[in-house]
Amino acid sequence: MARVVVGLSGGVDSSVAAYLLKEQGHEVIGLFMRNWHDTTGTLEGDCPWYDDQLFAELVAKRLDIPFRFVDLSEQYRQRVVEYMFTEYEKGRTPNPDVLCNREIKFDVFLKEALKLGADYVATGHYCRKEEQIIDGRIVYRLLAGSDPNKDQSYFLCQLTQEQLRYALFPIGDMLKPEVRRIAEEQHLATAKRKDSQGICFVGKVDLPVFLQQKLAAKQGNIHEILPSWRGYVPRDENNLEALAEPYHYTVRDGKKIGTHKGAHFYTIGQRKGLGIGGRKESLFIISTDVEQNVIYVGEGDSHPGLYRRALRILPQEIHWVEPSEAMQVGESRRYDVRIRYRQPLQKATLHQREDGLYIVFDQPQRGIAAGQFAAWYTGDTLVGSGVIEK
Q1: Number of domains in the chain
Q2: Range of the structural domain that residue 278 is part of
Q3: What SS3 string covers 173-220?
Q4: Which one of 77, 159, 248, 295 is separated from 135 by 20 to 30 angstroms, measured CA to CA?
Q5: Mean local confidence (pLDDT), 43-71
Q6: Threshold 0.85, pTM exceeds
C-alpha cells in the first residue's frame, strides 16, 4: 500500500476521496492548503478559507488520519492572481481554475506532499487516470469523469505526464449522489456542505470589485452593433487566419446606448452587469476594446457577432498531455473540442501551422474568448489543450 496525501479542501468530494483511500488500505494524510487571505470583492455569505479549514480538520478527525496545513498564498498570488490581473488588463478572459491545478495543486502542493514522503497526491476531482505501456514506457491518460454532470477533466487539461504520474482521482468513477451518500453514511462533516463556486480558492466574487484591487475603474461607452453590420460576410473556408480572426468594430459601426466602468471588467458573451434594460431580448457583449475603452454589444442570443467558426492557439501555448502525440506542421486531425467548462464537446478539425494551431469547428461557436482554454478529446480521453489567442 502507498502513502497518499489528500488535498482536503473542506468539501465533500475530497473528504470522500480520503475515506475511499483509507478503506483501500493506504496510509492517508490530509493536507489543507490556504491559498488566499484577502476578502476584497468576496460576496457576502460565501464561506471564507477558515471555514474550509475547520471542515477539513473535522473530516480528518472523523477518519482518524493525520492533518497538516500549508500556506501557499504567496505562490498562488504570484502564479494565479497576478496572471488574472494581467490577462484582464489586456482585455482577455483567463481561467484561474485551470491555472490553479497546473501551478498550485499539482506543482507547489505536490512538492509539499512529496516532502511528507507521499507516493501519490489525491484530489476530489471528477476525472480518471489510466496507464498504458507504449514502446516500453508508461504513458498516463487523463479521462473524463464518469459523472457527465460533474466531469472536471477540462480543469486539468494542462497537466503533464510527470504530474499525472503522482495523481490519484478516487471518485472519478462515481456519480455525485453516490459521493454524498457515502459522506452521510460515514457521518462526515462535509456531507451536506454545498459545492464551492467562483474562483478557485478565492470563492464567489464580484469580479469588477475584485479586479479593482489592481485595475482602475474608467468610464467608457457601450455601442450597439446591429445584426446587419456589413462585416458579417461569409469568410473563405480555406483561409484559416481569416476564419479565426475576431470581428473588429469601431464606434462608427454602432450607436452609443450606455456607459460602463471599464472594458477590462467584461468578457465576450456576458449579458449581466450592463445595466441596460427595456429590450425585447438580452444584450450580449460581442467585443471589448481595452485600448479605446469601448464595449460592443448585440441584441439576442442569435446575434452573428457572438459566433465564430475558428480560433487560434500560439505555438508556445499548445500543450499535449502525451508530448509524443503532438501534431506536426502541415498536419490536420479531427477531435472533439470544448472551449469552456460544461460545454458539450464540439466536432472540429485541428490544423497545425507554423504560426500556431487552428481549430475549425463544424458549427459556429458562441462566445469564443481570448485567454480561455480550448481542450480537445478523443472519446473520453483529454489529449491536449491551449490558451485561445484570438
Answers
A1: 3
A2: 211-306
A3: CCCHHHHHHHHHHCCCCCCCCCCCCCECCCECECHHHHHCCCCCCCCE
A4: 159
A5: 83
A6: yes
